[in-house]
Design goal:
CATH class of one domain: Alpha Beta
Number of helices: 14
Oligomer: single chain
Distance between the termini: 28 Å
CATH superfamily of one domain: Alpha-D-Glucose-1,6-Bisphosphate, subunit A, domain 3
Number of strands: 20
Shape: globular
Strand content: 15-25%
Largest sheet: 7 strands, mixed
CATH topology of one domain: Alpha-D-Glucose-1,6-Bisphosphate, Chain A, domain 3
């Protein structure tokens, strides 16, 4: 049984992420012989309580002690899982009909090996332990400790937020319990939108985009704030809105943070881990600051950080890890944390101003496209593209570790990769001639698919 996707387990609560599945995954996770205690949290979805109950039953019946922390942002569970394990019941930015399960070990998401072990135990369907071997269940309030830790960490960067007006659209999600409170503690004048937790997401869709954040953008543009911040349902994603109400490109946000972390690195070899679809503007700013970039497949930042650390030396500092909208502040912890991103980015803005932070970032036009490709043909199509795209663009540097990525001397780049969830090849292009380049690459990809069908 294949349960885990790029971000844990997610799906419809009636057909996929059911109480039966939560019970089975809990028992499978708790059956790891090295496990003694799990922190268990959930987001605000209406199905969260029932699924958390089933998860707690599965964990305890496998012998694990369970510390239930109630409704919390996903990064709070990552923070609390240091030195133990963690589970959060969340579907992040998915619609309210969905829910999901994400597992942590010592502050990081489960890696591929740990997820495979859980899947194997679910397939084996073990019986509960004897009655006198079940684990205990207790409750704890860890939000204050987590918020205080974010505040302490963020104060290492930028300047105090005194007088900075920030609007935060929490999307009726878990950011309501963390980001406004953290920013106020740091001195900001905060205006919170959709800041009541409601699993129906009545204020807007849970996924923060330029379209769903229209109210936030209008509020900021009308002079309601100097800076806007939008979150998804569990507060691991972040979107930045400038004073004109425009969404700052997600890769520009990564570039700004990455440059800051590299410039403040103590080691001689600062590394930023990102994904194949991330912009070349990140590489440019990291290299200008004296660091280098390593790329890892989508949804595997924690795997990339671990690999970079293994391959590094005493002079290597994994300064930052990020994919669009999701950031791992490696000096704070190994989990994706949108609340920490909000705090650190706001302090950088308070110190230098958003315009000054963006000024050195080259923001070339960026486009995405899709080429329909049956799942059964993806491997053959990608193998063919590994030959045809370099032939089409002989002057480009080519890598094929995570799809086919072409890098050009002027900073432009192209990526074609197979979708992990839909029958498409994804095409990403960043270039001053983006439309022409996207058209050419799409034509080559379409021809490759036709050749293998």
């Amino acid at each position: 049984m294949e349960l885990f996707g790029t971000a844990g387990i997610r799906g419809d609560v009636r057909t996929a992420v059911t109480p039966e599945l939560a019970l089975a995954v809990g028992r499978a996770a708790g059956a790891d012989g090295d496990v003694e205690e799990f922190v268990l949290g959930r987001d605000g979805r209406t199905t969260g309580t029932g699924l958390a109950d089933a998860m707690a039953a599965g964990l305890s019946s496998a012998g694990a002690d369970v510390v239930r922390v109630g409704q919390v942002p996903t990064p709070t569970v990552g923070f609390a899982s240091r030195g133990r394990r963690g589970v959060v019941i969340t579907a992040s930015h998915n619609p309210p009909t969905d829910n999901g399960i994400k597992l942590f070990a010592d502050g990081q998401e489960y890696d591929d090996e740990a997820e495979a072990a859980v899947e194997a135990r679910v397939d084996d369907d073990p019986d509960p332990l004897a009655w006198d071997e079940w684990g205990s269940t207790t409750e704890a309030d860890l939000l204050p400790e987590y918020r205080a830790a974010v505040v302490e960490y963020a104060r290492k960067y930028g300047a105090p937020l005194d007088g900075l007006e920030i609007a935060v659209d929490c999307g009726n999600g878990m950011a309501s319990l963390a980001t406004p409170q953290v920013l106020r503690e740091l001195g900001a004048d905060v205006r919170a939108l959709n800041a009541n937790v409601d699993g129906h997401f009545p204020g807007r869709e849970s996924k923060p985009t330029a379209e769903t954040l229209q109210d936030l953008r209008a509020f900021v543009a009308d002079g309601g704030a100097d800076l806007g911040i939008g979150h998804d349902g569990d507060a691991d994603r972040i979107v930045i809105v400038d004073a004109d109400g425009e969404v700052v490109h997600e890769d520009t946000v990564v570039a700004v943070l990455a440059e800051q972390y590299v410039r403040t690195a103590d080691a001689d070899d600062p590394v930023v881990v990102t994904t194949p679809n991330a912009s070349g503007r990140i590489d440019e700013r990291v290299e200008a600051a004296g660091g280098r970039v390593e790329r890892v497949r989508l949804g595997a930042l924690h795997v990339g950080v671990a690999a970079a650390r293994r391959a590094g030396t005493d002079e290597t500092d994994i300064a930052f890890a990020a994919e669009p909208w999701k950031h791992v502040h490696t000096r704070f912890g190994g989990w994706i944390d949108g609340v920490a991103s909000a705090a650190v980015f706001a302090r950088l803005v308070a110190d230098a101003g958003l315009d000054a932070l963006r000024e050195p970032v080259t923001e070339r036009p960026y486009r995405k496209g899709d080429v329909r490709c049956p799942d059964a043909e993806k491997v053959a199509a990608m193998d063919l593209l590994a030959e045809r795209l370099p032939e089409t663009f002989p002057d480009a540097d080519v890598t094929t570790e995570h799809g086919v990525r072409l890098s050009f001397a002027d900073g432009s780049w192209v990526l074609v990769r197979p979708s992990g969830t839909e029958p498409y090849l994804r095409v990403y292009v960043e270039s001053d001639d983006v439309d022409e380049l996207l058209e050419t690459v799409t034509e080559v990809a379409s021809a490759a698919v036709e050749s293998v069908e």
